# Entry
Amino acid sequence: MDSMLDANTPLHELGVEQDILGILKTYFGFTQFRQGQEEIIRALLNRRDVLAVMPTGAGKSLCYQVPSLLLDGLTLVISPLISLMKDQVNALEAGDIPGAYLNSSLTPEDYYDTIRRAREGRYKMLYLAPERLKREDLRLLGEQVPIAMVVIDEAHCISQWGHDFRPSYFLIQSFIQSLPTRPITAAFTATATDKVKADILAILQLEDPFILTTGFNRENLYFGVQRIPYAQDKMRALLEYLKKYPDRSGIIYCATRKTVEDLCDDLNAAGFAATRYHAGLEDEERQHNQDDFIYDRKPLMVATNAFGMGIDKSNVSFVIHYNMPKNIESYYQEAGRAGRDGEAADCLLYYSPQDVQTNRYLITTSAPGEPPRDPELVGHNLELLKAMTYYATTHDCLRSQLLAYFGDTPGHYCGNCSNCTTQFESVDIRVAAQKIISCVYRIEQRGKRFGKLMVVDILRGGKGQKLLSQGLNTLSTYGIMADTDAHRIRTILDYLVAQNYLVLEGDAYPVLCIAPRSWEVIQEKTPLLMMLPKESASPRHKQSEDLEGLSSLDESLLSKLKALRNHLAHEARLPAYIIFSDASLQDMCRKKPRTPAQFLAVSGVGKVKMEKYGNLFTRLIQDTCGRHSGGPQG
Ligand code: ADP
Ligand code: MG
# Structure
């Protein structure tokens, strides 16, 4: 490929505006920096080391890619995931930026070819896995080519306190020291705990670094918790969601490999194009499935938490957690893979109380052959689980819960989470609570104890075999809440347990028992208030409104633009979002550009993409919408 840039081109010959905004538009197609980007870029151009902590999707790549184009010499980017380097390099090439990668997926010929070209100064950026750093050829490269900057992406991998510790990250520091001149060193991560930050600073020996931590809020993400008392009802909730929003790409996280496999099969049987990913699959299948997802051949990815680190697919419109994760750190990181393109996206958690039991088991029980768990670590992890469970059950603003957890100081109402948008009302549950507690009491009088499921069933007058065979239909409380929805009874029941009006005993099969405080409720004459969703309230949120806001013309234009993009992507063997992100296509629908100049104003369209694709897209827009209505012709 004939590149517009190579490492030896003096800046004044670049033929582009030298200011960084010019670079941003020309090569990346954006007109504005996002929070933190410009400061980091300026620090790097002033040759300062950098530690940047920014949430997933904030746009960390651009922070080093822009300066790498302006610095003399090569930028090395250390990244833990070889499967994604190709993607990053494709994205650079789509903007005619010369980049390459070195990892074990290359044939020996390609590997040496790449090294040779790097030596000749043909690249601005070279991505590598940290393991490569111990190779002699890389050390030599460092002597033959000026290395302007070393970027450490996913820098938390260097810390044993992080969740993705990678011992080979320890090679980075000695590699940097072996270089003839010390390059600028820039570390990027989304993990902000103090221990991890301290490790990054110390191990990489950053010199007087510019440290920037942006806020954790991601405004375009809608957070929702759907409380689904019975795990077997989750599939129905999922299908409802997927039917409501067809054609969207999303990730569905499950707690276990088995759930991944079952759910993926079920979705395919229901006619959805889903693929799967977990650590138990062969490497080849994993890579293949990941590509199917990234290249939009299969819009749905069903996966365990093994999937996703470094996934840069920008058009992930939703992340659904089919099971509650073990802690909020994992939840926020996984959920944050939605909406990287800045468009509205959903992060939904399907919570059933059984998830707590499952996680508890996973945290406390060591696998066969494993030594018993360190009790201190188990205790720590149970605390984290508690915070996660609180998130799943709270009636407060979900976003404020998350942000407060990470140390931000949010307001109490965000207006874009399921608790803020679903209208809650204060309900007097005194009578319902008295009915539930009497039911537990009557059961105890018969010398029996049951779990929540059975108690709800008795109250609703269920006709299950176990219930009838034990004569529970003769209890005086049988069927006294037949007109109340099971979910609502369950919600109230959970609340009574949380308030110690009832207790749960037993670990494996917890059963409901009368508690000392139960009598307070029975004797209570004043209202007992609880926040419950209005029974008529239907969930309403920004994303659906956004879509409804598109006129039918826009929708048909959008699907034509998508078809064109997908066709081009297919021909170029690139993931569709590398040609244009969904955000760019939506901006085209808004702006309806008919001329090159108008096309250049679209977000994500830079000089290179305009030259490559401008004609095709503007012509399609003219054909679909007429020649003139979008603005003056150029
Ligand atoms: P991170 O590494 O921080 O998780 P990425 O670097 O992968 O995030 O960027 C996420 C998405 O944001 C990408 O699709 C990228 O093109 C987009 N992006 C980055 N900076 C900007 C910007 N200034 N304006 C618009 N989109 C941007
Ligand atoms: Mg990244």
Remarks:
- Residues 1-17, 536-549, 630-634 have pLDDT under 50 and may be disordered.
- The domain at 430-527 is CATH 1.10.10.10 (Arc Repressor Mutant, subunit A).
